[in-house]
Amino acid sequence: MKLMADGQAALYVATVFAAAVHASYGLAFCAGLVLWTIMGTAHNFFHQADNFRMFYFDLSPLSSSDWRITHGLSHHLYPNTLYDFEISVLEPFIHFLPEPHKHFLHRYVTPVTCHLTMLLAFFIEIIKRIAGLIIGTRKFEMINVLPWAQCVVMMLCTGSFQTGLLLYLTTICTASFFFAWVGLIAAHHHPEIYHAYDTFRSDPDWGLCQLDAVRDKIEVTGSLFLVAISFGDHSLHHLFPTVDHSKLPYLYPALIETCEEFNLNFSFVKQKELILGMYLQICSANPNPKPPGFPQIKPLIPEVVQKMIHKKKNHS
């Protein structure tokens, strides 16, 4: 995981320089894609003790120190509830909660305009950061210079303020869109996944409530790279957020065995279901009347996880 993160960072620096030297918007787009993958990987590291790799996240206009609070202490403790910052911060641009009086525009226009929000999310963050510094609600940190330094380097390499700025904007727009879109289709939003206003489970066990608000996509489990950039193995990540993603798969046999003890039919889903589900959830104004849970059908389990389960049983 560490080597992958370092490799991504090195590739990003190289791609940014290449885009600037050649004044290439295609390379700037590629740099944005690399930045998106870095942010996914860095997410793994800011959940852990202080380490320099968590600051790879700050290559973007987002802040690892902010996310340690909003993501670690809000989203992870209260996923998909009224206390989840990653639900409220999207409003009024994207409304995921199935509020009975959700406005028509939020239900049927937002599924289209949300893509513009994703594209401009980093710009909004830049404006918020500048405003916070001006009015004194946030302190300046040296690490916050990183995004501006990249912009200056691009301007110097191209010899043009306008070209350098446009190249940098291309990079962060690309990263902004893919980071936001992949994050929103990753694990949390589908009409069958618990959101505030849905009927709550009768047994408010913390672990069960975490699983109620998460689903895992079957296509990425087994590939550390895909897991890192797309927030895979998300159920285990919510149960054990400080465990490195490279170690999480080894916990699947214990997770599934424990779920069976609690009569929970743990199952993966296909990525296309989460993609469609995200848009359906935006449109939803009808709280789910049924308590959350996994459907009582044959569970969908990746082959790599099945092999781990069989191996554990053979050694028992």
Automatic annotation (TrEMBL):
The keyword Hydrolase does not apply. The chain crosses the membrane at residues 12-38, 105-124, 145-161, 167-187. Keywords: Membrane, Transmembrane, Transmembrane helix. InterPro entries: Cytochrome_b5-related, FA_desaturase_dom. Residues 25-267 form the Fatty acid desaturase domain. GO terms for biological process: lipid metabolic process. This is Fatty acid desaturase domain-containing protein. It comes from Hyalella azteca. The lineage of its organism: Eukaryota, Metazoa, Ecdysozoa, Arthropoda, Crustacea.
